[in-house]
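Dear V.,

Thank you for sending over the compound details. I've combined the ligand you provided, pyridoxal-5'-phosphate, with the protein sequence from our construct and run the structure prediction for the complex. I'm sharing the raw inputs here so there's no ambiguity about protonation or stereochemistry in the SMILES, which I know was a concern on your side last time.
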Amino acid sequence: MLDRLDRLRVLDRLDRELPLRFLRAFRRIVPVGAVQLVAAFDAVTPVPKLAPEQPMPGSFARQTTIFPGPGARLASIERDRIGMTTREAANEAAPESNAPVRLRDDSPLLNGYLSYLESNSTPFITPGHKGRANMLDADLGAVLAGDVPLYGGVDTVKSAGGLLAEAERRSARWYGADWCRYSTGGSTHCNQALCLAIGQPGDKVVVTRSLHRSLLLGMVLADLEPCWLPTAIDTATGMPLGVAVEDVEATLAANPDARAVLITEPDYLGTLSDVGRIIEIARRRDVPVIVDQAWGAHFGHHPQLPAHAMSLGADAMVTSIHKLLPGYTQASLVCARTQRFDRDRLERGFEASHTTSSAGSVLASIDACRALMEARGPELVEPVLLALKSARQRLREEVPGLEVPDEQSFMAGRFDPMRLVVLLSQVGANGVEIEHMLLDQGLPLELVDRDTIVAIVTIADDEGTLDKLVGALVPAIHATSGPSRSPTVPVSWHVQPVKAMSPRAAFFSSHESVAADLAVGRISAELIAPYPPGIPVLAPGELVTERLLADLRAVAADGVRVAYAADPTLSTIEVVRT
Ligand SMILES: Cc1ncc(COP(=O)(O)O)c(C=O)c1O
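Below is the predicted structure of the protein with pyridoxal-5'-phosphate bound, written out as structure tokens.
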């Protein structure tokens, strides 16, 4: 039996090793070990208070029903084999009123996934690796070890268990939505699915210009006409501040036939618009608000984090579970309230563009993240926020003059404190050079340009990982610093598009490649976006201007990747044939 100190040690270790444990369980590197690990984790997972009948969106309510997957019988044998330890630890780990439950008991897809791994199936269905690729080649086997399909793996081929639908219902309940789908196609797919559900071809939408390319291409697919909203900029720091409420109001007034408002919250730097007020304004006109919250899957899980968009009244929301939560790459979720959406259209839009062979492992990770965060969100976020506070403090102390914004630097709820943003212009340092130095030390960063560094921090980080980052950042900043300069606002935040054709018409037009200088004044047939942040600086249907070309060339000269352009050197541009 575990004594109290042992339990604390186990808890602490589990907290630190969460991604590793997930990885092991998912990859089946040591199958029995994975089961034991999950059992140990389950044993110390505390139960939150009982769910009220109708929990508020984003509340910590839960329901615990065990969902037998195809391998449930074998799973129970396996559990019995290790049952003593599990049960004893479970009984010991918490008082009766707060009895521990296992993550998989509140996670039908995780349970189905683990049950399959624990079973001894000899499948005569896809995928072709049959879970036996290691017999063909060890390296190939390592890559495929955790791959389990949804149909015929996590659930039966005929989806007899209804596991996916139940998992999606649980996420819908967390978000206060009445429709929710899990995607293996990332927020890219979810954004496009929503675009297909908005209206009719040719309909207008009011949309932030700082949108991800996936949303723009969703508008191409659905033939939506954008009425652009400019991005507000903080002149002191050059940071984007979302879209201004006044701009939303004015654009809706000028386009009373607009079918939706689409905003991206937060942006790459962690800042947000006043989402609540934007929703209020759109509501007065009965226009639905769709929020691309790809970067906010952790929102609502701690009082110091911004509220998630659905709790602010959004009609639909997209989030990438894989970005800010410990989910498999490509794991995303889309949810909606259906008062202002046609449920069938949402469903058809989603299915039209989703794979018919979903990776069960990806879907199980979405469900598991939901269960984990519902049970332990605040407890897991809290130490990371504290570690971030110390990291910011240390950066400010060790590099005098360095700007490291935190939530105090912005209006309440308008900045995600999990984003570590470092502004370099005051100390004259060069972000692109710093990135190279950090890469050499095995420390890749999410977004870097000359003046800005953005590190993504999640609940899988801790004091140790942040110390390592700060320890490498400080000397790198000192090594590249020089005279202070004014911050330059990256072109992604101040695009002033000149529209000449609908994005869809330009996308499908006959086009030609011309020398970039000769493209000035012509209509672009392609989408060009410095990456990150992946915001289209030039979109299909917009005029190529001299200013835009100069801005794009400057970005490229600064070492930022110019993505999606047919010619990334920018010597030529694809334009609509005249
Ligand atoms: C704002 C925004 N929306 C959507 C996406 C697409 O997300 P995914 O990579 O999950 O497809 C991204 C990707 O970076 C993004 O930044």
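A first observation: Residues 1-97 have pLDDT under 50 and may be disordered.

Warm regards,
I. M.
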